[in-house]
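pipeline/complex-builder :: batch 7 item 3
reading input block
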Amino acid sequence: MIQFITAILTALTTGAIYALMSTALVLVWRSTRIINFAQAGQAVLSTYIGYEVTIRSGSFWVGVISAMIFGALLGAAIDRFFMRPIFKRIQSGPILMIAPVVATLGLLGIIQAVIGFRWGLTYQSLAAPVSTDGFTLFGRVIAFSPFNLLVLVFATVSMLLLTVLFQKTNVGLALRASAHSPEIAKLSGIKVDFIRTLGWSLAGAAGGLAGMLYIPSSYLYPNAMDVLLVFGFVAAVIGGLDSLFGAVAGAMILGFAISFATSYVSEKLVFPMAFVMLVVVLLIKPAGLFSGKKSRRD
Amino acid sequence: MIKLSPTKKRTLFFVALGWALLLIGDRIGELLQYQGSFVAMYALAIASIILLTGYSGQLSLGHSALMAVGAYAGALSINNLNLHPAIALVIATFVAGIFGLILGFGVARLSGPYLAGTTLALAVSLPTLANQFPILGGEQGVVFDVGAPPARFGEDFSMYKWFFWISTLAVLIMLWLISNVVSSRYGRTFRAIRDNETAAALSGLNTGRLKVLAFAISSGMAGLAGGLLVMLISGVSPSAFPLSLSFSLLTGAVVTGVYSLKGVMLGGLVLVAIPEIADSIVTRIGGSEGFTATLPGFLVSALLILAVLFTPNGPGTLLHSFKKHN
Amino acid sequence: MIRNTRMKRFSIVSAVVALGTMVITALPAQAAEPGLTSSEIKLGISTPLTGTAALSYGKVPGAMKAYFDHVNANGGVYGRKIKLIVRDDKYLPTLAATQTTNLVLKDGVFALVAALGTATHSKAYTAASLAKKNVPDLFVNTGFSGFGNRTKYPTTFTVLPSYAMEAKIISKFVKDKFPGQAVALVAQDDEFGVDGVNGFAAGSLTLASKTLYPQSSMTDARAKALVTGLSAVPGKPVVILFGTTDVTALILKAAESLNLVSKFTWIAGSVGGDSNTLLALGVKSTTIDGIVAASFFPDAKDTNDEYVKEFSKINAKYNPGVSFDNTVLQGMNSAMLTVQALRAAGKNLTRTGLIKAIENKGAKFASAALVPLNYSPTSHIGYNGYWMGQLNAKGELKPFGGTLSVVTTDSTNGPITPSTYKRISIPKNGIPTNS
């Protein structure tokens, strides 16, 4: 019984972090049709900023806000000064798939090197703002702490805010319109370029938040979020890449699958499980669980 | 002037290239023979990406895993079946090809990012599986030994020259085969699918099956490259096939230009040369330990970005635009 | 169109020719003994400087350089200064092979020192033809027992006791001190963990549970699930953590969160039991208090130890800003062994002479460890034993039960015997004078 409950709690906490990462990837994908591998670097760099601010100001919350603002600015700058010039130069065809991947990987390398220059390659630890001691349930300490709860609440609230933004506001309408058909959006007077950049900033802020919520239960170092990026990407693909809800659902599915497989079968199954889940989902629905469009040819 | 068919011309070109490389191999030092072998191996691996992406429009982030399949198949056939290394390399090619075929039936129909995601998950999960089977030797892996060069080549014939011969020969044969495939009917249909899948399907092509075929051929090429890689590092182990290897190959493909197989040597050269250049720059300027450790990574990434910024469509297009301007 | 194709072909050919010329001009001059001049000895190290593995072992080259600088400032080795060339292999086999080849063929080093890792170095050894070129491969930083095989690795000298020895010694310790308690093993799913698992089997330790995990996938949540699972065992089970320090810290912190620290007797392997690092990674000092750990060195915090005292001084002077810990101690110790080996080989230094010198005189080298070196013409194995200690709240490792008991063994089925080794005291100022 305790093992079962622990597996569920583990799945929830893991899934929440995956969800923040997959959301960031989906936001960029929707605005630019790019799988942004630099996301891992952007998120870690934002977290380093948040870490510095936390130490200087003494407040984790000021740190979180700084990390999110920095993440948003960095995301916008990358789109404006980096991705846009590249897209101007690329012709159509398969190079459109491969060149942005290589570009974002290059960016990831640069960001991680910059972190190395500034902060070195050692582990830093960031203290959690609330207790990490587990709650007591029926006289037993469970694998769920106030900090885990906080992560879950933050992930849920940010998802809700994003949903409201997309569904209920004009900006959201513009974001959705430019994602689905940029040409028509342009014709109806939407500043597509600006909206694209906005998508990158939102993703950057989500990445910064993901970092600040993940690092206290891990360590801060240049490659800290590389593995998370892989899981975030797999989750986003499971969810259908286009849908925020899908990104969260994909993350939770992945979180549960991995947690139960490792708890009940073997610790070694973490990565293979991600592959199996992805293949199973895509065999049933080749464009992910919650994709809006019927075909995904781009 | 004798008129030659394009196929014969191509064959002559490959024979001439092989002859030239053989002569060069005799005149260079051990280090360059070793680096040259890596160039050839990477060239083949990049060609496998180009065939998949540039010719049939699919994106794979999992070619490191396919290389691993070939590498393990080759190593096991040498160690456990006592087969000749040349046969082991052929087996590496076919096992990876068949693996790609099976995988392809599942995933090759997926488009762009979905295929990318699946192959990425494959790249991170397959190496961890290698620890599960004792025959694969766990993390330490299995030795891949092609043996000493034949005695009749003489005492001075070094291991590195032997590597250089094997890899360039294997790569040239494979590339010759592939260049014949892409200039054949199959090559045209691959390109038709890449350019417009719907139109290709309407004109009666079985696009699904062709995509699987392209995936399988590409896997076979990657498998041979994997076999050569572990020959060069004398053994196979899971950590020899990190995700970063897949990413390096994509980089090589972008540098080469995904629309043509002709520049793959250049791509291979770049993958070997850039880290060397970065290292030597760092040695020259020096600096604190943290700085010198991080700088090569920075330079490699920066060069990569410059390549994408300035020749996103490959050096071929640079040539085109150069001609236009004149 | 045809012209264009020809042009491309031409460009390929010219690239190849260019490569060819580059090559011919870059042919290195072959000296009788590479890497050696009347004023300099060039040594090379291939080790991770970036990537995850560098977090634990990145300090090794810096520590070695610092020690060599100290020796160079005091006259070098028979007038020759030692130059250490460091190449980053990111702990990847392919890079280890190419970087080691670079060290031998491009940098022309005289010998290799302190290469790190099993999967990496076992490949690099063959790929760089170290055996054929007779390149001394000194003091490799891995506990893989296979490097002791002189037929396969004729120029290699191991230094660390093997993981198998460690596992055997811990097995006996657990059976002696905690009879009747269930034992759980939590080990990394790579050669390091697997060698350990085989060692525990050789030590015929009955394991109630055995968990192997891939290092990169261990997270805080996984660790909590793991510790919860272990807590189902009644009594006060012994948990052996055979993994790197970061994962050891994650598991200990998970136990803190679950209020289960005192439920278990914790044993940390020599790799993961570095208390400085554990504390820096946020493990509470109350958790560290009482952890059992195996070591063959003196405690890096024990400033009364003459080696620790001297090495700390050198570290402060030549390696500023780097805190002194087990890794730095290990790096300096290997550097000191290297200097003694070079001295022992005499003024007419040759590669063969260096290997012979270690075989003949290596067992008498001064070293920081509390266990003997086993070099001889028939053995290239370095240290072969451990002592069991217990960490206190300050992170100092004190002998378990109050009295130091050092034991030695081998990597196979040999017995575990108490050691009678008496450590040779450190030469004045840490500069070896023996030859």
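note: Chain B touches chain C through 53 residues (CB under 8 Å).
queue -> next item
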